[in-house]
């Protein structure tokens, strides 16, 4: 059964609202990913353990440094959880004093990427920041790496030192720049909506002929009117670009996380107890975000379909609400031209 004009209009508005919510969710997800791990949340003074902000969004987590001393629970091999995020590397140590229960070893440098995670040196730096005795971590200090002498009394760090590894670095910089580009695309979508509503000159441009012929122009061409079809084309272009950029960013970051997990698992087979894991919460958030972007594209296309569709009586010029007079209301296309929701 065909929808009435009112039903189609309400459906279009509902689809627009859901598409906007999908983009709001995408923006929030991006901000959470960028912010995760970069701040410390203090616990209750003096005994409440602190935490790293959004620690559940860590890309990789593993155990180490301080033995648990819990013989009844072999799975609890270490007290300290080490967390690697897009923009930070730090630790959580719930059983420690309030001021040492968490900390950040590497953090973002303003908007620029922070230092890459370097193993095993950063494990020694973490132990130093945890205020362990120098004799526990000096074998992994920069002085020892440059030829100085050092012995680690900490069994975990000594095991790393015994492997005589060439320092290996894991950088998230490429993924960070891709996430920044995703943020720029989101901002461009906002500017596009401002242009559609109030400043058409903001979205006007010249497109090469090959883009114009194939309907790929991302903006309002100089000889075009701002019709529903043109608006849908421009919005679709940016939403597809958003999907591509976010997919690239999250994929690059996930692959980097997998590389670190594989490396840690090889070390864990020799040391034991680290239990390296890829962050499932981050993976789920990334998947939901990509789904939200794709849904916004789908809802935009469905909305355009409803704008074009007319009932049989409308095609005959009959008002379906009265069935007595020729339709005097604007068509869906005309209504849609005035309707500037996404």
UniProtKB/TrEMBL annotation:
Q: Where is the composition biased (Acidic residues)?
A: 332-342
Q: Where is this region: Disordered?
A: 317-342
Q: Tell me the superkingdom of the source.
A: Eukaryota
Question: What keyword terms does UniProt attach to this protein?
Answer: Membrane, Transmembrane, Transmembrane helix
Q: Keyword check for Transmembrane helix, yes or no.
A: yes
Bilayer-crossing residues are 174-191, 237-261, 281-300
Q: What is this protein called in UniProt?
A: Uncharacterized protein
Organism, scientific name = Clonostachys byssicola
């Amino acid at each position: 059964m065909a929808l009435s004009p009112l039903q189609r209009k309400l459906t279009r508005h509902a689809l627009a609202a859901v598409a906007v919510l999908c983009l709001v969710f995408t923006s929030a997800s991006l901000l959470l990913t960028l912010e995760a791990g970069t701040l410390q949340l203090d616990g209750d003074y003096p005994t409440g353990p602190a935490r790293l902000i959004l620690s559940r969004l860590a890309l990789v987590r593993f155990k180490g440094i301080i033995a648990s001393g819990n013989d009844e629970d072999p799975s609890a091999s270490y007290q300290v959880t080490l967390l690697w995020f897009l923009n930070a590397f730090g630790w959580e140590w719930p059983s420690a004093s309030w001021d040492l229960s968490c900390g950040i070893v590497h953090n973002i440098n303003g908007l620029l990427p922070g230092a890459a995670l370097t193993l095993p040196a950063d494990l020694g730096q973490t132990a130093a920041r945890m205020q362990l005795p120098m004799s526990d971590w000096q074998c992994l200090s920069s002085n020892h790496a440059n030829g100085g002498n050092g012995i680690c009394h900490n069994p975990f760090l000594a095991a790393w030192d015994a492997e005589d590894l060439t320092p290996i670095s894991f950088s998230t910089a490429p993924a960070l720049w891709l996430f920044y580009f995703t943020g720029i695309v989101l901002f461009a979508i906002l500017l596009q909506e401002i242009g559609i509503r109030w400043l058409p000159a903001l979205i006007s441009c010249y497109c090469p002929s090959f883009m114009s012929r194939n309907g790929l122009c991302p903006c309002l061409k100089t000889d075009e009117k701002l019709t529903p079809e043109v608006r849908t084309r421009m919005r679709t272009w940016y939403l597809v670009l958003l999907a591509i950029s976010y997919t690239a960013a999250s994929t690059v970051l996930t692959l980097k996380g997998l590389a670190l997990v594989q490396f840690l698992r090889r070390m864990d087979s020799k040391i034991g107890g680290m239990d390296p894991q890829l962050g499932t919460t981050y993976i789920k958030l990334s998947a939901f975000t990509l789904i939200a972007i794709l849904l916004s594209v789908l809802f935009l296309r469905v909305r355009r379909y409803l704008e074009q569709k007319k009932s049989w009586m409308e095609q005959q010029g009959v008002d379906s609400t009265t069935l007595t007079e020729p339709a005097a209301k604007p068509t869906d296309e005309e209504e849609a031209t005035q309707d500037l929701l996404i």
